């Protein structure tokens, strides 16, 4: 029986290994992590991450051919294929601070594999890593090999949170990069055979190591670029009276462009986009390509601009101050159908409003108070370190209350900011919300999910990103 071990039981490792176990009943899969709390959660009825469909997959395989354990050394030693899915946070100090990936966790994983291995292993990069990481890992493993052969493969994940299980069941492509040597080709085939249990062969792409590593960064950069492009257009739409929804629909009808990732919003979030682009910028700078670095930097600048623009619009519309006004925040996760708050635009929007002394009442169906308080006080990039290395639960932000009901959040509020596109926010009784708010009552729709005209009929003053502005908003312009 082939044995697979995955180091790292997070958003990538957990779901990916669960699906491999489900689709390959003849393969034994172990997911290992040094966090006892996280492994206990994977072994419980309350999984540590929320992802539609994940519960059924895990519970169908757990204890049969899928195991979650803190005994890292044992499972690594026994495995044939070791996936490494550890954090690669952005460096906060030293060379490349603010841009380069911190490979501390990767390096210690590689050293541990070399220490405990007693048989040949295929080591698979599953985290998003900078180009040429495989070379560094190879050097560590080779110099500590004790005669054991290691083959390094790059197998980047292309999951979208909220649809990760469907993405794993039916991927656009599976990418495997390896050394173009007989041993490398053999390792690529071994991993290809795992995915071939359920993925059609024409969707399993093989490349050299560096192409696979760079493809992941490039894919995320292109997706983020599309969001920043439509968000840049949204500002122009507001200035000219155009409607960004109509513009993006017309643009998306061009088959060369397509409709995906053209929804204007308060900005992109998630664990990958900003981190990967910063990484790309650093690699370009290191390779003497400052013009290319500058090009990709602009994608992040537009994203920051969009969040600032949203905050400025809120404050300017409400007589240029939100001091001591209650602002309801609907949605804190970076997108619907996930509890993930990493780099969510809600953090910057909330911090911007708190900077003007607003009282925030926050509701998200999948994010708890501890996580929200942690996010609002944590330093940039700290979120990407393992939980036990993050600051302990900080002192609560005094002007923030977290509630478990949208109606409670909006009661007596001066304004509502919609920051996540949860389906339930489309179905709320906005007449009831309006009746219980301070007047004038404002809605700032950062996801364009409510019908602005219907909201205006109820009595709201409405701001929807990239849509023609209310007369009220034109009279109170936001200075960016």
TrEMBL record:
GO terms for biological process: glycosaminoglycan biosynthetic process; UDP-glucuronate biosynthetic process. PANTHER family: UDP-GLUCOSE 6-DEHYDROGENASE 2, UDP-GLUCOSE DEHYDROGENASE/UDP-MANNAC DEHYDROGENASE. Residues 328-452 form the UDP-glucose/GDP-mannose dehydrogenase C-terminal domain. Keywords: NAD, Oxidoreductase. The gene is UDPGH13. Gene3D superfamilies: Cytochrome c1, transmembrane anchor, C-terminal (1.20.5.100), NAD(P)-binding Rossmann-like Domain (3.40.50.720). This is UDP-glucose 6-dehydrogenase. It catalyses: UDP-alpha-D-glucose + 2 NAD(+) + H2O = UDP-alpha-D-glucuronate + 2 NADH + 3 H(+). Its EC number is 1.1.1.22.
């Amino acid at each position: 029986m082939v044995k697979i071990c995955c180091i790292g039981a997070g958003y990538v490792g957990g779901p990916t290994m669960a699906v491999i176990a489900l689709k390959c009943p003849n393969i034994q899969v172990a997911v290992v992590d040094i966090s006892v709390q996280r492994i206990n959660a994977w072994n419980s009825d309350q999984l540590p991450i929320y992802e539609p469909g994940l519960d059924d997959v895990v519970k169908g395989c757990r204890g049969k051919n899928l195991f979650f354990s803190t005994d890292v050394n044992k499972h690594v030693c026994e495995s044939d294929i070791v996936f490494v899915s550890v954090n690669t946070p952005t460096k906060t100090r030293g060379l490349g601070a603010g841009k380069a990936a911190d490979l501390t966790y990767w390096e210690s994983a590689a050293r541990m594999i070399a220490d405990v291995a007693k048989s040949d292993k295929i080591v698979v990069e599953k985290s998003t890593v900078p180009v040429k990481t495989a070379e560094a890992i190879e050097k560590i493993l080779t110099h500590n090999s004790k005669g054991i052969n290691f083959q390094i493969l790059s197998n980047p994940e292309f999951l979208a949170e909220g649809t990760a299980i469907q993405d794993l069941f039916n991927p656009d492509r599976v990418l495997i990069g390896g050394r173009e040597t007989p041993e490398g080709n053999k390792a690529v085939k071994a991993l290809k055979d795992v995915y071939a249990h359920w993925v059609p062969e024409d969707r399993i792409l093989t490349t050299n190591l560096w192409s696979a590593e760079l493809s992941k960064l490039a894919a995320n950069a292109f997706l983020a670029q599309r969001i920043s492009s439509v968000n840049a257009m949204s500002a122009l739409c507001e200035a000219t009276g155009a409607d960004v929804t109509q513009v993006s629909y017309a643009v998306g009808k061009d088959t060369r462009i397509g409709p995906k990732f053209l929804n204007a919003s308060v900005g992109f979030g998630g664990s990958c986009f900003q981190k990967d682009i910063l990484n790309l910028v650093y690699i370009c700078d290191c390779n003497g390509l400052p013009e290319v670095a500058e090009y990709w930097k602009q994608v992040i600048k537009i994203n920051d601009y969009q969040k600032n623009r949203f905050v400025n619009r809120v404050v300017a519309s409400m007589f240029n101050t939100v001091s001591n006004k209650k602002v309801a925040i609907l949605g804190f996760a970076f997108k619907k159908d996930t509890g993930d708050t990493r780099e969510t635009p809600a953090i910057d929007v909330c911090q911007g409003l708190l900077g003007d002394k607003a009282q925030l009442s926050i509701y998200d169906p999948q994010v708890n108070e501890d996580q929200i308080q942690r996010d609002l006080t944590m330093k940039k990039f700290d979120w990407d370190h393992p939980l036990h290395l993050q600051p302990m639960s900080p002192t609560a932000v005094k002007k923030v209350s977290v509630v478990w009901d949208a109606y409670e959040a909006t009661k007596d509020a001066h304004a509502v900011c919609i920051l996540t596109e949860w389906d339930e926010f489309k179905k709320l009784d906005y007449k009831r919300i309006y009746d219980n708010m301070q007047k004038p009552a404002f809605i700032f729709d950062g996801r364009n999910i409510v019908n602005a005209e219907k909201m205006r009929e109820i009595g709201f003053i409405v701001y929807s990103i990239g849509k023609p502005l209310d007369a009220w908003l034109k009279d109170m312009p936001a200075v960016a």
